[in-house]
Specification:
The chain has 13 helices and 11 strands. α2 links the parallel β1 and β2.
C-alpha cells in the first residue's frame, strides 16, 4: 500500500511537471493604455488562452517592457515575443511597409486597410525586410484616415498650413511638409505635452488616438475631411519564439488572427459612432476643407512623394514599383473592379 502511494505521488508530480513544461507564456510590448488600437491584441490573447485551455498565455504590457520606438529592437534580441510598432517611427528599419504610409493612397475604410496591409506583409521582400530583425509580421493594426486637431484659429486653407507645426509621422508628415508645414515625429505618448506646451500647433491622429492621448481635450477645431493618409502599425512576433511553438499552439495563434481583426474593426466602428458626440460636448469646431483645397494638397503631395519613394527604395534594391502596384491592385480587387 505504501509503495502504491509512493508511485501515485510520483505520477502526480510527473504530471504536474509535464503540464508546467508545456505551458507557454509570451510577453507582448505595446504602449499607452488599452484602447481601440490594441483591441485585436487583447482579443488574440483571449482566444489563444481559451483554445489552449490556458497552456498558451500572453501578458500584454503597456509600456512596461520597452519604449514604442524600441519595440522592433526588442523583438530582434528576443526581449519579448510579440510587439506592436509603427513604420514611421523608424522608416530605415522597415522600408518595405512604408509604402502603406504614402499620402493619398485612396484607402477608404478599415476593411481595405486590412486587405492592403496583408498583401504587403505577405510579399517576400517585406518578409525578408522584417526578418532582418528576427520579426515575423502577424497582423496589421488598421486605422482610418488621419485628420488634425489644432489650437488657435482654424487652418482651413493650404496657405494657412504654411509654417504650421504639426505632429505627423511617415508619409503624412512628408505630405504636410510639401505644403509648407513643419512636421515633427514626437511619439503618440508625447503628443499631448507637445501640444500643451506649444511645441506643435496641431496633431495628426486617427480618432481613437485623439481620445486615448487626450489631444481632443486641447483642441479648438479639427479637420473632418482632409484625409491625407494613415500610418501602418503591424503586430510582429519573434521568429524563434514562433517556430518554438508546438503545432497545437501555433495553430491556436494562427487561427485566431482573423477573428481578432474582425473584433478590432467592429470595436473601432463603435468608437467612430461616438466621435461626433464627443466633439459637440467639448465644443470642438468642425472644419470641412473645400474640395479644391484638398485636390491642391493631393497635387502637391501625392505624386511627388510617391515617385521619390519609388526612386529611393529602388536605389536600395527593393521592388518599390511592385509593392506600390500591389497596393493599387489589391484595392481594385477588394472593390470588385
Amino acid at each position: 500500500m505504501r509503495t502504491q502511494i509512493k508511485y501515485t505521488a510520483a505520477a502526480i508530480a510527473l504530471s504536474m511537471f509535464a503540464t508546467e513544461a508545456m505551458a507557454v507564456e509570451w510577453n507582448v510590448s505595446v504602449w499607452g493604455k488599452r484602447r481601440a488600437f490594441t483591441e485585436h491584441i487583447e482579443k488574440l490573447a483571449e482566444l489563444v488562452s481559451a483554445k489552449t485551455n490556458g497552456d498558451f498565455t500572453m501578458n500584454v504590457s503597456y509600456g512596461g517592457l520597452s519604449k514604442n520606438r524600441e519595440n522592433l529592437d526588442g523583438i530582434s534580441i528576443g526581449a519579448f515575443e510579440m510587439a506592436q510598432f509603427c513604420a514611421g517611427y523608424h522608416r530605415d528599419k522597415n522600408p518595405t511597409i512604408t509604402v502603406l504610409e504614402l499620402p493619398f493612397l485612396g484607402v477608404n475604410d478599415l476593411a481595405e486597410e486590412v486587405a492592403v496591409s496583408n498583401a504587403i506583409y505577405a510579399h517576400p521582400a517585406t518578409q525578408a525586410d522584417l526578418a532582418r530583425w528576427n520579426a515575423k509580421l502577424l497582423m496589421p493594426s488598421p486605422m482610418p484616415q488621419y485628420n488634425i486637431v489644432g489650437t488657435g484659429d482654424p487652418r482651413d486653407t493650404l496657405d494657412k498650413f504654411d509654417g504650421m507645426r504639426v505632429r505627423a509621422t511617415g508619409g503624412i508628415g512628408n505630405a504636410f511638409k510639401a505644403v509648407g508645414a513643419v512636421p515633427t515625429s514626437v511619439t503618440a505618448t508625447e503628443a499631448y505635452n507637445a501640444m500643451e506646451s506649444g511645441v506643435v500647433d496641431t496633431v495628426a491622429f486617427a480618432p481613437h488616438a485623439h481620445f486615448a492621448f487626450r489631444t481632443i481635450d486641447l483642441a479648438k477645431w479639427w479637420t473632418s475631411n482632409l484625409n491625407p493618409g494613415t500610418v501602418n502599425c503591424p503586430v510582429v512576433v519573434n521568429i524563434d519564439a514562433y517556430e518554438a511553438l508546438s503545432p497545437e499552439n501555433r495553430e491556436a495563434l494562427d487561427s485566431s488572427i482573423a477573428e481578432s481583426l474582425d473584433h478590432y474593426v467592429a470595436n473601432y466602428g463603435e468608437l467612430l459612432k461616438k466621435w461626433d458626440t464627443v466633439l459637440d460636448e467639448k465644443k470642438v469646431q468642425k472644419v470641412e476643407m473645400d474640395p479644391a483645397q484638398i485636390e491642391a494638397f493631393r497635387a502637391a503631395a501625392a505624386d511627388p512623394i510617391r515617385e521619390k519613394w519609388i526612386a529611393d527604395m529602388s536605389a536600395q534594391g527593393l521592388p518599390a514599383q511592385e509593392l506600390y502596384d500591389l497596393v493599387i491592385t489589391t484595392l481594385n480587387e477588394k472593390r470588385g473592379n
